[in-house]
Amino acid sequence: MWSPEREAEAPAGGDPAGLLPPEWEEDEERMSFLFSAFKRSREVNSTDWDSKMGFWAPLVLSHSRRQGVVRLRLRDLQEAFQRKGSVPLGLATVLQDLLRRGELQRESDFMASVDSSWISWGVGVFLLKPLKWTLSNMLGDNKVPAEEVLVAVELLKEKAEEVYRLYQNSPLSSHPVVALSELSTLCAGSCPDERTFYLVLLQLQKEKRVTVLEQNGEKIVKFARGPHAKVSPVNDVDVGVYQLMQSEQLLSRKVESLSQEAERCKEEARRACRAGKKQLALRSLKAKQRTEKRIEALHAKLDTVQGILDRIYASQTDQMVFNAYQAGVGALKLSMKDVTVEKAESLVDQIQELCDTQDEVSQTLAGGVTNGLDFDSEELEKELDILLRDTTKEPLDLPENPPETFYTNSVPNPRISDAELEAELEKLSLSEGGLVPSSKSPKRQLEPTL
């Protein structure tokens, strides 16, 4: 499903039709409705009005974000959203609604809300407005002219944040003051044109993150030190440091130029020697030596300037550390405002007293409940002794031993009657000694063996 957020993630540039919602190519009836003009008032048909506005308003902003621009015109949007030779008839109404909601702002109104006196073309924007724009505003006509430049407020804020991060991550951030020309070169990839770059600086100035000053015909920009800090006005120290930085750059360029000149003199002397022109070679060598002496002198000056700048940067770092320490001490004092040694000792004593009370309560609860009956332990001991003595006098009623049964195998013994056992006993007696069995002889019960 299409949404402005998904479209905004698409890469910038290219044919916008390839990144438009699906119904753009598939639903002719729907697109005919969306390309038609709005009614005079929303009260006539609020459903149709809201449907068109809900389609075009996000699409206009997402298209601008995808293109990486913060400035837009009605004419450019009409060209971008052409479909089969037709242009949307309600784009002017959409822009009016975005202006009413504050999501768009006229470029001239935005510049009037910020001090833009340092911009060379700032005054011209107000003076060169077409006469019909002025008459339209005077007569109360809220129509948006096709050539009027509008600013996407949220996109401008995003672009300003991008430029600020770009500066913070660059070598220029070593000092808060930077030349406007150097900053413009740094932001060339983020700001497609000069007017966008100036609008971004105005937005940062509106957020109190930069301030711009013209010094000796050159504009310098001062950034706030932190992402949430407010920029301070440009002072004499900032101007002095900026001048030192410019001197350092000038000296570095001069040294590089003289080094190339010395190398050129050296080559001329070599060629003169090969050609046998000794005097010309000597003059070239003398010029080389003079240039090298100038380079040495410039190097000494450059070292001095760099040393001063290093000390300034170190002092600024020391100041930042000092401010951090000071803030930390202040925060610690506030956090320890109501804490004293006496209060701490009193608190520890209270904790110990509560712990002792808890231990006593636990011991009391562990003693159990007697339900009002008090037992004498000595009487209980005597009664227990009597019971033990009576128990030793009585014979023990033990169960009888069960008859022993021997098994020689795991197979069960067969059952044999008494008559069979008597007959077997007689046979044994007769065979062993002629003994005569007597009826009075005791009977033995033999266990059969297997």
From TrEMBL:
Residues 1-22, 391-415, 428-450 are annotated as: Disordered. Residues 248-275 form a coiled coil. Pfam families: Snf7, WHD_CHMP7, WHD_CHMP7_1st. Residues 156-224 form the CHMP7 winged helix domain. It comes from the Eukaryota. Its main location: cytoplasm. GO terms for cellular component: cytoplasmic side of plasma membrane; ESCRT III complex; multivesicular body; nuclear envelope. One of its GO terms (biological process) is late endosome to vacuole transport via multivesicular body sorting pathway. The keyword tRNA processing does not apply. Residues 10-22 have a biased composition (Low complexity). Keywords: Coiled coil, Cytoplasm, Nucleus, Protein transport, Transport. InterPro entries: CHMP7_WHD (IPR057471), Snf7_fam (IPR005024). It is found in: Cytoplasm; Nucleus envelope. PANTHER family: CHARGED MULTIVESICULAR BODY PROTEIN, CHARGED MULTIVESICULAR BODY PROTEIN 7. This is Charged multivesicular body protein 7.
